[in-house]
Amino acid sequence: MAVKVLIKRKVPQNLESKLLELLRQLRTHTMNQPGYISGETLKRLDKPEETLVISTWQSVEDWRKWVMSSERKEIQSKIDVFLGTGTEYELYEY
User: Left, alpha or beta for 5 (phi > 0: left; psi -120 to 50: alpha)?
Assistant: First the structure.
C-alpha cells in the first residue's frame, strides 16, 4: 500500500541558500531509490522558515530502507547539524 511521508523542517532564511546543495543531494539520491514515486517541496506562506516535503513511496518498507541507509543518514545528519535541530517525519497510508 502506498504511503505519504511528510518531512518538516525549520530553515531560517539566512541559511536557506547554504542548505540548498545538501537538500539537492538528498533529493537526487531519493529519486533513485526503489519504491520512490514522487516528492514535492512546499514553503509555508505565513511562516516562510517552515518547509514541508511530501514524499510518496510504494510501501512503508521502501521508505524505511531509504531512511535507514547510510548515504541518507550522512546527508541528513549534515542538514540537522546545520539547522541545529532535528527533522520531523510523519507517515500516512492511503
Answer: beta
